[in-house]
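Following up on my earlier thread - several people asked me to post the actual chain instead of describing it. Fair enough. Here it is, all 327 residues.
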Amino acid sequence: MQAMKLRILLTSVLFSSLLSVNAESFRVAKTIPADLSSPSSSITVKSGIGDAVSVTLPKDLTYVTGLEFKIKIPDVIAGYRNSVAYSFYHRVTPSPSEKIVDYKGEQFYFDSLPGALSQTVYVPLTDASPLKDNPYTKIIRSVPDITDGKIMLRFQLVMKGVSEDLYSSQFEITVRPILLDKGRVKISVTVPPELRDKPYSIYIDDKLSSQTPKELFSTGEHHLSIVSDAFRNEVRTFRIEQAKTSTVSVTLRDIAPSVKFVCPETARILFDQKPVANPKEELTVTPGEHSVKFIIGDYEIIRTVFAENGRSYSINLNIDAQITESE
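Reply from S.P.:
Thanks for posting it. Predicted structure:
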């Protein structure tokens, strides 16, 4: 008889909640705030029967696709299966506060707690939520209105004749955001002052990148290439971490060929018969054939190099001493 009354009571409450499309008035014993300050944060609070937990969402919801509520159920409540129901509300007024007990809000989900020591509930925040069915969790299918950045969870007693211990029992609720398995990349490109008006294209994973702030990439390794007729092609590999922005810095180089020298400090260098003032600095040259002369005392070495656009050349002067042995 008691089980039948319970089913009738639950059915009545659920039916009335489904029929109501307008805000309903309700009173709570206490309002417990749960402020999720950032997408990577979680918070644990305690609530009793008749209380409500007001969850404030992070301001940046770029990567947040839903919320996970882990509810630890006290032994005494688990012993009275379906004795306590929980409801989720959105569009709650006035704005929830610890000083307020009377509210109006729209209920978007209602269920009873099982005869178990825990219950996990997933609340999607977008239509594209990747949440999938799981035998150990409840997945709410309706997406709440989060315009005001808040969701309320309320606990109600729905069974008569229960132990007095239920009224003093406390639930432990841990709320954490569910994040997309994606991130962003910020590409910082440095261009030589004399070539600032020259165009270039950025490709990520062989696709032309718009480089918009909203562009998201899956976590893992990605490939970057910068292509231009005025600069040398640059290739980089970078990693995307979940809900984070990776930074890739690239300095573009003139497409003109360059030459660097490796030689003793006492050596003089003539490039196309002109002295090289600072041999330690890379020298930008024109495409074509060039002559290089190294002078150490009375000793000279002359070489020819044919330079092509987009290429770098290293010219090394090696002075060796050979030892021979004879009888």
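DSSP finds three helices and 25 strands in the chain. That should answer part of your original question.
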